[in-house]
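User: Here's a chain of 94 residues. Predict its fold as tokens.
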Amino acid sequence: MVLPRYARRLLLLPLLLLAAPVYKHFNPTHSWLEGKIRDEANTALAPDRVKSVSCDVKDSNADCRFTTEANHTFSVHVTKRGDTWTPDQAVELP
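Assistant: Prediction complete.
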């Protein structure tokens, strides 16, 4: 059975509208790396906690920034060697 053109468009429209947000949310490099940075910072800075993390990934390097609940902002450079991401020491930004 072949669907008419309008029916195919109606079926594909939700998929097209959701494609970009779903890809951004489930992109394994960014979300996994941000989670790793958040977990390590929460452990190192306890009792202060991280409220936001963002990473800019370029090939095997990433520059991440995170802000704590006490409004301190830190920057950390992360390098990928093989399958392992290794963060440098976090530096507090002024």
